[in-house]
C-alpha cells in the first residue's frame, strides 16, 4: 500500500462543499476548505460526477480541502475507494490520485494537493467522445 505525503485534496465534483459525497465523507473531518483552481486540466461530464483530464491551457474550479490530521489516513483510504483508484496504475481504475499544484482563489497562493484525475484509459475515451464542461466548473454546468 502507498504511504503518501499528507497533502490537502483538490475536489471538483461530488466532494465539494454542499455536494452529497462531501456530506458523507468530509463533513467534520476537515480543517479548511478554500475555493481553488487546478491549472492544466479540463472537465468532462460523467454519469453523475465529473472527470478532470490533463490539458494544457485548461482550468478546473473546485475546492482545496485540508483534512484534520487525525482523520487523514482513514479519509485517504475512503476517498481512494470512492474514486476507484485503490491500486496505482491498475487498468480498472476510474481515477488516478496524483499530486498537482493548485491555486487558491482568495490569494493566488500555490499549494501542492492530491487530485483525482481520470485514469489514462478513461481519459482517452473522454477526449475521443466525451462531453466537455466548458469553463471547468461542474456546478455551473447545471445553471
UniProtKB/TrEMBL annotation:
SUPFAM superfamilies in the cross-refs: Gamma-glutamyl cyclotransferase-like
Gene3D superfamilies in UniProt: Gamma-glutamyl cyclotransferase-like (3.10.490.10)
Pfam families in UniProt: GGACT (PF06094)
Domain Gamma-glutamylcyclotransferase AIG2-like residue range list: 9-139
InterPro entries: AIG2-like_dom, GGCT-like, GGCT-like_sf
Name listed for the protein in its UniProt record: Gamma-glutamylcyclotransferase AIG2-like domain-containing protein
Organism: Streptomyces glaucescens
Lineage of source species: Bacteria, Bacillati, Actinomycetota, Actinomycetes, Kitasatosporales
